[in-house]
Write a structure and sequence with these properties.
The structure is a single chain. This protein is mostly helical. It has one domain: Ferritin. Helices cover 76% and strands 4% of the residues. The protein has a two-stranded antiparallel ribbon with strand order 1-2. Helix 2 packs antiparallel against helix 3 and helix 2 runs antiparallel to helix 6. The longest helix has 42 residues.
Length: 210
């Protein structure tokens, strides 16, 4: 019961009279866990919206390049067609990654909302941390700026789970990579379907398709 009381205090009030640390010799109290999760939820929504804006811009560029590609094929300009096809291919690769990330982050956002509604139900929050870690690892290779931002959110929520464990909020073994991978696989499948639906394919003179 004592652990539950300590955790409830940490959740609502922060570490008043409890967990503290020092920065440049100045005593600083830990933020309430609830505030940390709210902050992470806000940052997740911010990244989802930013991805949406970027996707719209990429789709517009893809459409312009695709029209130029069709003209190059019609005019038998094989060299120009290959250059355009290569650029379109790179754009669609990034689009696929961003769509997958957007869908996965929407799942994360839903879990954070649920967590904030239900309180200290760690099984709701736990899979979010490995999802963000896996997304961060992929994005650092393909979209570094976004990967860095997700890395910051991952660290924040990882700290929340560590505190919950310390104060008896949950058992560590509820953090299952399997559930996190399931979320990402579903997001990847959706992204592949979106690419097929929203982006037209064309056959190049050499027989390849994009």
């Amino acid at each position: 019961m004592d652990a539950i009381v300590r955790f409830s205090r940490l959740w609502e009030e922060g570490a008043k009279g409890g967990k503290k640390f020092f920065i440049f010799g100045k005593e600083v109290q830990e933020e309430p866990l609830k505030k940390k999760v709210f902050k992470a939820r806000y940052l997740i929504r911010k990244e989802i919206d930013r991805i949406g804006y970027t996707l719209n811009k990429l789709k517009e560029r893809d459409e312009r390049l695709f029209n130029k590609l069709v003209d190059a094929i019609v005019n038998n300009d094989e060299l120009r067609a290959k250059v355009l096809a290569s650029e379109i291919s790179e754009i669609r690769k990034i689009v696929k990654t961003l769509v997958m990330t957007q869908v996965a982050l929407e799942r994360v956002e839903y879990r954070l909302d649920l967590f904030l509604t239900l309180g200290d139900v760690a099984t709701t929050l736990a899979p979010v941390v490995p999802v963000l870690d896996m997304l961060k690892s992929q994005l650092l290779r393909e979209v570094p700026e976004l990967g860095i931002e997700l890395g910051k959110i991952h660290e924040e929520l990882e700290g929340v789970l560590d505190d919950m464990s310390f104060y008896g909020g949950f058992e560590a073994d509820v953090v299952l990579d399997r559930e996190a991978r399931k979320i990402l696989e579903e997001a990847k499948t959706y992204a592949e379907q979106q690419i097929k639906t929203e982006f037209p394919a064309v056959s190049l003179p050499d027989g390849n398709k994009i």
